[in-house]
Design brief:
alpha/beta; Aspartate Aminotransferase, domain 1; Aspartate Aminotransferase, domain 2; 2 domains; seven-stranded mixed sheet; three-stranded antiparallel sheet; 12 helices; 12 strands; globular; binds pyridoxal-5'-phosphate
């Protein structure tokens, strides 16, 4: 049986989500903007999903805006917030953010906005002294800081970052894509003003996500059109995807503790096994991390080569983030944490899910040990 250890890249559709989506695909086909009964049926389904997504993150339903995924949500948060701020107001963002934040920041820089990276330490956690200094150097519109990193699983102290941002009159955007469904996420407790979510990381469909936004935060939309999602994200809603996201969010909330405990137990087994193998570096292991994620390097192995060797054995892992694999550059996350390029080139990420098993961990460790012996022989 092949082994899927790449749940941070994406997750399989939960059969219960599939069932709800299939019912929806063959069911209410009205346009949710229509006032007749067909339209109202679609509208009711969207509002039910909005309430389910809001409940997962302790937000109010009217704070949830559906998008095509977290890439769009991150773009909307960053571009939308800067567009409604004076030209001098800066964007600050963490060095280990997802490319959908980094590349948006680059585009804003190219358009003449002041954007600044905030450094992280070797453990992946924000450099608080650097952050406070940067905040103190003039107006900041928005700070973008992810709750949990997709590669290392390192969990940032977003509430602290938000308090410091607010004290300087800045907003805080949190990419909570990897945290949602794996650890409790509470919009209010995080102190965030904006927050991104994605359905396909929580056993929902691909191509749908949400931006959570406080009412008082003014954003310029990326798209202009028919006024859906209160004009923040116009376009006829993708009903089956939104319904699937809603069900996935409800399941994630109901099953969060069980999923997290299961993954944590397996992750501990895995890390104990990796340490027994020796010559293994586990990245970010001194920081709080997601219960399902381990990023490591095995001495003598280049990450991409190890990934291919594991794939030939039927084991799917990732070398860094899915979006950046194949680029031939080491992970910006590890470089940002100050790891040398050679070690960063060796990175492999294992991300577990509720369907992962002890047998899979044992098999993975056995295969790694074989490959390690091969690597040593080569
Ligand atoms: C932390 C993080 N943010 C944003 C995204 C982008 O999400 P989506 O695939 O919904 O565009 C991902 C997906 O890899 C992610 O891991």
């Amino acid at each position: 049986m092949p082994i899927y250890f790449d749940h941070n890249a994406t997750t399989p559709l939960d059969p219960r989500v599939l069932e709800a989506m299939q019912a929806c695909l063959g069911g209410p086909y009205g346009n949710a903007s229509s006032v007749h009964r067909y339209g109202r049926a679609a509208r009711d389904a969207i509002e039910a999903a909005r309430a389910q997504v809001a409940a997962l993150v302790g937000a109010q339903p009217q704070e949830v805006f559906f998008t095509s995924g977290a890439t769009e949500s991150n773009n909307l948060a960053l571009q939308g917030a800067l567009a409604t701020a004076p030209a001098a107001a800066r964007l600050l963002y963490g060095a280990t953010e997802h490319p959908s934040v980094l590349e948006t920041a680059e585009a804003l820089r190219a358009a003449g906005r002041a954007v600044e990276v905030v450094a992280v330490g070797r453990d992946g956690l924000l450099d608080w002294a650097a952050y406070e200094t940067q905040l103190s150097r003039g107006p900041v519109r928005l700070v973008a800081l992810m709750r949990a990193n997709n590669e290392t699983g390192v969990i940032q102290d977003v509430p602290r970052a938000a308090r410091l941002a607010h004290a300087r009159g800045a907003l805080l955007h949190c990419d909570a894509v990897q945290a949602a469904g794996k650890i409790p996420v509470d919009f209010d407790a995080l102190g965030a003003d904006l927050m991104s979510l994605s359905a396909h990381k929580i056993y929902g469909p691909k191509g749908v996500g949400a931006l959570v936004k406080r009412a008082a935060v003014e954003l310029a939309p990326l798209l202009h059109g028919g006024g859906q999602e209160h004009g923040l994200r116009p376009g006829t809603e993708n009903l089956p995807a939104i319904v699937g996201f809603g069900v996935a969010a409800e399941l994630a909330r109901d099953e969060l503790e069980r999923r997290a405990a299961h993954c944590r137990r397996l992750r501990e087994m895995l890390e104990a096994g990796l340490r027994r193998l020796g010559a293994v570096t586990i990245f970010g292991d001194s920081a709080p991390r997601l219960p399902n994620t381990v990023q490591f390097a095995l001495a003598g192995w280049e990450g991409e080569a190890l990934l291919m060797a594991l794939d030939r054995k039927g084991i799917a892992v990732s070398s860094g983030s899915a979006c950046s694999s194949g680029k031939g550059e080491p992970s910006h996350v590890l470089l940002g944490m100050g790891w040398p390029r050679e070690l960063a080139f060796g990175a492999i990420r294992v991300s577990l899910g509720p369907s992962s098993t002890e047998n899979e961990i044992a098999r993975f460790l056995a295969v790694l040990s074989e490959l390690q012996a091969l690597g040593a022989a080569a």
